[in-house]
Amino acid sequence: MTVERSLASRLRDARAVTVLSGAGMSAESGIPTFRSGVDALWRGRRPETLATPNAFAHDPLLVWRWYGERLAHLRACRPNPGHTALVRIAALVPHLTIVTQNVDGLHRAAGSTRVIELHGDIRRARCTACGMRRTDHVDAAIAGTIPRCVCGAMLRPDVVWFGEMLPDGAIEEASAAAAGADVFFVAGTSAVVYPAAGLVPIAREAGAFVVEVNPEPTDASSLCDLIVRTPAGVLLPQHAAELEALVARDQAG
Ligand code: BJW
Ligand code: ZN
Q: Which of 91, 187, 242, 250 has the highest count of CB atoms within 10 angstroms of its CB?
């Protein structure tokens, strides 16, 4: 007879845990996802009109207005219990790496320290001419204007659009974290955007126990050892609490 090990016991025994997070991770912070739900960011819009270098070249004001709306909304958003649960789990495992596709900075705001941001940070901009990175663009963007650099050129959001390379070294570091994981969470992502989605087979082939946390099926579901159709902000705190209880029991002897 095989005895199914609990996820908490796998986490307790893990040397390395890696989490691939996506927009669903921040859904319970009030941030709309891209492709799911009635308030999806891309509902009624074509991604190529907003999240590509061509879109920006063609109509920078349209693109900046979209980012301005999102920046205004983000000001009121805080990390949710799912983000905080990952900080609690990280305190009890030797290595926990978060590989996030999110650009909202909420993992770091929650207190996570080892975070690889694959798609940049919406709260930063960079100059289209001199390349300088800045964070003083937010008010201009929220006001519905195109933010400018001190050199006079247009700024652009410091995020990764379709057809663009990821930040230097980010995917290499993320692939190493996927390949080295004993437990690999796929949380709140539809797993349709590459190269991020390619981390799931990397983890799986390297022997990780792969857990999907998502209320809906995704392109990654068939690769997962355990699927939990529960929102991340509910499921992850439950596992953090189970792990804490297990560790406390072990310590009590
Ligand atoms: C919950 C929940 C709750 C709800 N709890 N869950 C290989 C094959 C095919 C294509 C390609 C390939 N390699 C590269 C490509 C091209 C392209 C690509 O992937 N295209 C596919 C769409 C087909 N990739 C790229 O261009 C990438 N660059 C690249 O590969 O460079 C190398 C290269 C360059 C040039 C030529 C050749 C190679 C760059 C990708 C950049 C993606 N950028 C965006 C925008 C970022 C900026 C911004 O925010 O505005 O990143 S697109 C958008 O999608 C954003 C997200 O990070 C990303 C992923 O979305 P995510 O997070 O999965 O969100 P959703 O909405 O899709 O899903 C949410 C999920 O949450 C759902 O499943 C819900 O059910 C769930 N959920 N509530 C848990 N409470
Ligand atoms: Zn400049």
A: 187
Could you tell me how far CA 39 lies from the centroid of its own chain? 18
Q: DSSP of 154-202, one letter per residue?
A: BEEEEEPPTTSPPSTTHHHHHHHHHHT-SEEEEES----STTGGGHHHH
Instruction: Give all strands of the β-sheet with 155-159 in edge-to-edge order.
Output: 133-134, 120-127, 155-159
Q: Which of 162, 199, 224 to mutate to test the pocket of ligand 1 (most atoms within 8 A of CB)?
A: 162
Task: Report yes or no: 36 and 110 within 8 Å, Cβ to Cβ.
Answer: no
- Per-residue confidence (pLDDT) for residue 3, from 0 to 100: 53
Tell me the backbone φ, ψ of residue 168, rounded to 5 degrees. Answer: -50, 125
Look at residues 66, 53, 60, 50 and name the one whose alpha carbon lies nearest to residue 146.
Answer: 60
Catalytic residue (one of 73, 95, 107, 119): 119
CA-closest candidate to residue 246, choices 13, 84, 18: 13
Which tens digit of pLDDT belongs to each residue from 107-152?
999 999 999 999 999 999 999 999 999 999 999 999 999 999 999 9
Tell me if residue 119 is catalytic: yes
